[in-house]
Amino acid sequence: MRERKAQVWGLLAPTLFLMFAIGVVPVIYILYLSAFKYNVFSRVGMVYTGFNNFRKLVFDADFLKSLRLGLTFVVLCCGIELPLGLLIANLLTLEFRGKGLFRTIMTLPLAMAPITIGSMWVLLMNPDIGPIPFYLRKLGIEYNIGVNPTQAFFTTVLVDIWHWTPFVVLTFMAGLSALPKQPYEAALVDGANRWQVFRYITIPLLKPVILTTLFIRIMDTFRVFDEVWMLTSGGPGTATRYVSIHLVRLVLQSMEYGYSSAMSLFLLYLTIVMCWLLMTFISSSQEAT
Amino acid sequence: MQRKTLRLVLVYLVCILIAAFTLFPIYWMFVVSARTKLEVFSGPKLIQTSFYAFNYYRPFFRDIYGRYLVNSLIIASGNTLLVVSLAILATYAFSRFRVPGSSNLFFWTITNRMAPPAVFIVPFFLIFTRLGLRDTRIGMILLYCIFNLPFAIWLLKGMIDSIPKELDEAAYIDGCSLLGVLWNVILPLAKPGIMTTAILTWIFAWNEYLFAAILTSVNARTITTGLAEFVTVIGTNWGEMAAVSVVCLIPAVVFIGIAQRHIIAGLTFGAVKD
Predict the structure, then answer these.
(1) Gap from B208 CA to chain A (nearest CA, Å)
(2) Has keyword Glycoprotein (chain A) (predicted)?
C-alpha cells in the first residue's frame, strides 16, 4: 500500500512541479513586487513602499475609468448575446435539413484565433479599404473607428457579438435538446401558448445552462484583449481601454513594474472573487430548483 | 400544416441571415488576400475573379513569416504533447486515488482559465528574462501549460472516471504495474477523449497572442504575433495581412472538421454536452 502511495505522488509530481513553477511562483512574485516602487529606468532600483502602490491604485482615475468601461462592455455584450442566443436557439429546436451545416458554420468563429478575428475586422472597418465605411459613406454616415470614440466602442461590442453569439446559440441548442419532453406535452394538453411554454417551462428548465453560459461570458468579456488590441489598441483616446488593455499599455509604456504588479494583483483578486461568487450563485440556484 | 411551413420558412430565413453575418467577414478576408495593392485601394468591390498568389508567397518565403509559422507549429505541438502526457498521469491519480485537495480541482481549473492573461505578464517577463527562457520555444511550451494543463486534466477526468475501476483492478491482479495499467488499459479506452483534449489544447496554444507578444521577439515569435505586426506607421500591406490571417485560420478549420461535436463541451468545461 505504501508503495502504491509513492507511485501516486510519482504520477502527480511533474504536474504539481510545473504548475507550482508557472502558476504559483508568479503570483508570489506579483505579491512581492507590489510592495515596491520598481521602475526599470530609475537609478535607485527597487524601493520598498509598503501599501503605497495600492493606495495609488484606489485613487487612479485612469484605472477606475478602465474598470468602469470594462464592466460596461461586459454588461452590454452579455445583455445582447444571451437573449439573442436564446431566441435563435429556441427558434431552431425543430429538425430541418441543413442543421448540421448551420452548426458547422457557427463553430467557425469559436476556433479562430482572436487575433485573426481582430485583423479580419480591421480589413472590414479600415476607412481606406473596408467596405463598411465605404457603404456607410454612401449613406452619408462618416464611420471611422480611429477617430470616433462612440463608434469604436460599439464596434468592439459588435465584434464580440460576432465572435461569441454562436457559442451561446450552440450551448443553448445543446441544452434545449437535452430537456425532457414530458412537460412540453403536458403544457400542450393544457393549452398553453407559445410564450407561456417558453416562459414557464423552457426558461426554468434551461436555467443551469443559462447561468453557466452567463458565467463563462462574463469572465471572458471582462478579460477581453486580443480582438480589441488589434482593432483599436484601446483608442481613440481611452474609448476602448478595457482593464486588460489598460494594464498591458501601462506595463509597455511606463515600465512601472511595482505599480503594475499591484494592479495585476487587484485584478487577479477581482477575478477569483467574481468566479467564486458566480459559482456559489449557480450551485445555490441549482439546489433551489 | 400551413403554420408549420411558415415556421420552416422563418427558420431558414433566420439561418441564412446568421450564416451570412458569420461568413461575410471571413469571405472578405479571402477576397482581400487575393488582391493586388492596386485592387485593394480601388474601392471595395465585393466580387473577386482573379487570384494574386504573391500575397501568400512573399510573407512566407521572402519574409520572416515562414519562420513564425514553424515556431507556432512547434510550440503548439510541443505544448500539446507535454500537456496531454502530464495530464494523463495526473488525471489517473486524481480519478483513482484520494488526493488531498482534489475537491478544489474544478475551482482551480476555472480560475486558471478565467484569469486575465495580462495579469501575468510582469512576473513572467522578469522571471523569463532572468532564467534565459525569453524568446525561446521551450519557454513558450512550458508557459502555455498554465492555462492548458488544468483544462486538460479537467476534461480528461470525466473520461477516465467513466472507465470502470474493475478493469484496472483486474489488470493489477494479472501482475501489471501502474504504468502498465495506464498504457494497456486506460490509454486505449480513453483514446477518443485524449484526442479531443489534444485538439482543443492545440487550438488554444496556436491561438494564444498576449504571452507570445510580450515574451518573444525574433527566435520564437509565433504567427499570431506576426500578424499583429502588420499594422505599422509606414502603411500596411493589406493583401499580405489578409493572406497571413487566412493561413492562421486553416488549422482551426481543419480541426473543426474533426472535433466539432466536442468544442462546446470543451468550452463549457463539460457543463453542457452536445
Answers:
(1) 7
(2) no
